[in-house]
Amino acid sequence: MTEKPQPGAPALEKGLDLLEALAGASRGLSQKQLAERVGRSVSEIFRMLVALERRGYVARDPATGEYTLTLKLFRIASQFPPTERLLKAALPVMEQLASRVQLSCHLTVLHGEQFMVIARIEPEWLMGWSVKVGAVFPLTQQYASAKVLAAFQLEGRREELAQVIATNDRISTKKALAALDRISAEGGNFSNDDGYTRILAYSCPIIEASGRAVAAMTVPLVKQEQIPANEASTIAAELRNAARMVSEKIGGVA
């Protein structure tokens, strides 16, 4: 039996293609480059780009003619009730954490097969390491947040994310799952002796009522050969306590 064609919205599809192409670009793209990426002609995408620019979703550099995404999509996402609730619960706790450990901290969430930074707090300190809000990173063992977000998921989703990590790190899914098992057993990422990690960081999950991580709270440290044991212990304890407080605020489990 022949399947009936599904109803479509060509203009919407075209606009979404353009937004996704810009989101995946590390720099601005010209109309010609965008047309090539979405498989359309320059004339086909011209009116859509004009509309997206008028609505504030993209910006055009007058000097180069290149288009980039604005933060409008991020602002819309941050107004989504679950995200807004999470930020409302997390930001005051993150401010206290940054002040107590004198290091920056940030909050990340899963974003498809990647993860995104949705909040960052800086301490009153002259030096440190931090990431941009809105930055998106791949799921790989190079990042503490990625490991924590993947480790504290329900079984099916956890296995899916382990496969993504395995592909990105070019290891077996079994090895990726074993690494996630260690992190879930420890209640977070407090070790960087896995041979993969680029940035020394501690990370803990923010757990909702279902038992899965809706976010990861992470404290990156200035790269050192070794952190004094007492300092590492203090940072880990403060981070665990902060993550527990946020989890409780959103009705989750500690």
TrEMBL record:
The source's domain of life comes to Bacteria
* IclR-ED domain residues: 72-252
User: SMART domains per the record?
Assistant: HTH_ICLR (SM00346)
Q: Which Gene3D superfamilies match?
A: 3.30.450.40, Winged helix-like DNA-binding domain superfamily/Winged helix DNA-binding domain
Q: Which SUPFAM superfamilies match?
A: GAF domain-like, Winged helix' DNA-binding domain
- Pfam family membership, one: HTH_IclR
Give UniProt keywords alphabetically.
DNA-binding, Transcription, Transcription regulation
The HTH iclR-type domain extends over 9-71
What are the TM regions of this chain, as residue ranges?
A: none
Question: Which named protein is this?
Answer: IclR family transcriptional regulator
Q: Which organism is it from?
A: Bradyrhizobium diversitatis
Lineage summary: Bacteria, Pseudomonadati, Pseudomonadota, Alphaproteobacteria, Hyphomicrobiales
